[in-house]
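Hi R.,

Here's the chain you asked about this morning:
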Amino acid sequence: MSKSKYRAKIWTPEFIIIFLFHFIVMFSMYSTLVTVGSTAIENYGAAPATAGFVASVFIVGVLAGRALTGYQVNNMGAQKIMYIGTVFFFITYALYFIDGGLYFLIAVRLLNGIATGVISTALNTLATVSVPPERRGEGISYFSLSMVLGSAVGPFLSFLVLEHISFNTMLTCIGLAVLAVSLMLPLIRINNTMRPEGAPRGRFVMIDKDVLSMGFSVLFMGLAYSAVLSFLNLYAIELDLVTAASMFFLVYSAAILMTRPVTGRMLDKYGANVIIYPAFIIMAAGFFTLGQAAAGGVLLLAGFLIGLGFGNFQSVAQAVCVKIAKRENVGLVTSTFFIMLEIGLGFGPFFLGMIVPFTGYGGLYQLLVLSIAAGLVIFHAVYGRHEKKQEI
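And the predicted structure, written out as tokens:
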């Protein structure tokens, strides 16, 4: 049978809406993540450690939301979960505007994090099933840009606008943006494969055992990257490179935006190995370079290398997880992938912070090359050495 010159579309109206909604939810998450700590200090006199907890407790909520949702996506369908999460998001988001004190703010952060985790798991599932199977790697690569853009544009704009408006005004603007996009959700008609009506549901599970081993590779990579999120600013102050550090994540995002469309097509055509092994090596080179940074240009070069490495690892690893699991478990697989990633991102700084007094920030970044190497070894053992067919 001859191939048609027309390929099945990825950027359908439904995919675009799913992409936009995930972007604006991630934008909301990262905008508050980097600004709520200073608000807690200014409004409630919180200690720096407590202010950090006010910010990071959101990630605990996201983890809880994903853990509770992955199993239910298979039973209820991602579309219904998306609506439940959206309603819960707006209810918990409205609580930000009640001045109930520091502990109330912590509770609000936790609850809004749960809502965000529920929405993100549902949207990732819908995006995965909406793209043509023969272009799944490319589709996941494109969709994951919604998180990349949200994590880069959110902090950048929030720092910018807080020079001129209050935290509550910023929250209002973000909430209206989320509301505007959510009005398009009824146009999403696709849904994931669910268990047949009346079929036994089995016991509740939070982790898909088929992808758990691959998940440890994701965890070690997330652990390494958590040091960038948590300690880059302190490292830059120590080196007197604050101006360059302010551009780090823009360069990081640019590296991903430049390469994701290409690596997504390569993934579908040649398989995961041709992308992910170089990604491990490039990320390790980025961390080694970051540990040696003595000038702004070197710091930004490290950002570019880490973007090439970690940015492309994420999308390829997610596609691999979807491939090696059962098709009907795509929701649980998506949840498992992000749970393992966010365990590394969320809990990494706590443990790595204990090492800093002995290594310094530069030494820590170089030491984390070992974490990246561990991720590579696990990937090779679990999937890389077995990959035969060129399909994801």
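The chain has two domains: 9-193, 205-387.

Let me know if you need anything else.
M.
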